[in-house]
Amino acid sequence: MRAHQSCWTAKSGWDSHPAAEKAALVLAFGSPDAISARWAELAARHPHAIVLGCSTGGEIHGCEVMDETLSATALEFAHTSIAAAEADVDAHGGSSFEAGKAIGAQLARSDLASLFVLSDGTRVNGSELVRGLRAAVGDNVVLTGGLAGDGARFGTTYVGLNAPPSPGKIAAIGLYGRALRVGHGSCGGWDVFGPERIITRAEANVLHELDGQPALDLYKRYLGDDAAGLPGSALLFPLRVYPADRPEEAIVRTVVGIDESARTMIFAGDMPQGYRAQLMRGNFDRLIQGAATAAEQANRNHEGERVAILVSCIGRKLLLGQRIREEVEAVNDILGGKARLTGFYSYGEVSPHAVTGCAELHNQTMTITVLSEADGA
Question: Is the pLDDT of residue 18 over 70?
Answer without folding.
Answer: no
